[in-house]
Amino acid sequence: MSKLPTVAIIGRPNVGKSTLFNRLVGKKLALVDDRPGVTRDRREGDATLVGLDFRIIDTAGYEDEDAASLPGRMRAQTEAAVAQADVALFMIDSRVGLVPLDEEIARWLRGSNTPVVLVANKAEGKAGESGILESLSLGFGDPVQLSAEHGEGMGDLFDALLPYIEHEDLEEEEEEDPENPDAPLKLAIVGRPNAGKSTLINRMLGQERLITGPEAGITRDSIAIEWLWNDPERGERAVRLIDTAGMRKRANVQDKLEKLSVADALHAIDFAEVVVLLLDATRGLEAQDLRIADNALQEGRALVVALNKWDVAENASSLFNGVKAALEEGLSQVKGVPVLTVSAATGKGIDTLLKVAFETREAWSKRIGTGELNRWFEKAIEANPPPAPGGKRIKLRYLTQAKTRPPGFVLFGTRVDQLPTSYQRYLINGIRRDLGFGAVPVRLTLRAPKNPFDR
């Protein structure tokens, strides 16, 4: 868990908060678009500014709307971010100048206990001079003039933040070892829109950390949240929960912003260890769910399927069996993917889901010694010898595990380029079944010794 001081970026929509966030974390983590209101949930990242390390929070544009509306729920997330921050960066657009909403935000910030640093963005050139002068009336002193897009003014921002977030006495954090079984489990929750992904994560955390509601497609950015799960058997275990945007069928995704959200969700899958495909039990399994699952497996991620809204599902037994059968048929490359039932509304099944996720990561990270592997291999080819296409024998010599996460094996032999796919599948399924890899994706590479007379 991060021990770094926290900085929250606050401001009305479209002043450049996400652009500054991306610059400070050094990656394009937050989605950026010319349209206002792109950011909805608050997004966190580790930032570095001229050697100063801190935790940065990108927030939704602050809007004065009814608390029950989507903008109102977004505002509640922004208020929560300011409450937990050591300092707030209040950003205005110096080219536009002050607008009534800026003054409303300033009144709210003056009533909070969090120190405020005023930032005038888009201050390159002379177009922002009048807006910078206007901002003095907000009562936060001289603004830090910068250009988040072009990286100008970062030294002045460093000077402004330094008094609030100096942290020489903090203990150094240990580097994360991905092979360590006690390292945080990187768990991505994926699925179609409105499957209940954000609601499930909120239930896990025990707080309204992510915006939820009846509207489809609320989540846009992929949001990573550090959390400690209280395992009934082993105590606290670190988890990095990743909430993702709902992924619709590609043909239905026309809007540029939705395309960016889906791309961000796919990117999140790449960096996860275990992917939970969340299904809406009231809608069952659809072709799009299989596409999402197949994508996770193609990327080599371990997969778990969870049926959400189980507390309101009808014909539960036949639904569960139908989903399992459809997965067996649709994901023929990996048999036996775990299928669980959960309820984000009541919390039922969440501990089981996390227990299975940790066990699945353990199988995904497993390494088998060469001796044990080849004893199994000899029995496997004795029970089912490889074919002899055209009367020429394929000789399989030995098998070795080259990598983990996902497990990858290299098969050495002669004429292995003629080894049928069905026989390769026989070996892969045997490895999964007999050596404890379960339903994780397994890679098999074929390699023949070099022929010295090739030339």
TrEMBL record:
GTP 1 binds at residues 11-18, 58-62, 121-124. Gene3D superfamilies: 3.30.300.20, P-loop containing nucleotide triphosphate hydrolases. GO terms for biological process: ribosome biogenesis. It comes from the Bacteria. It holds the Pfam family KH_dom-like. Belongs to the TRAFAC class TrmE-Era-EngA-EngB-Septin-like GTPase superfamily. EngA (Der) GTPase family. This is GTPase Der. It comes from Sphingomonas alpina.
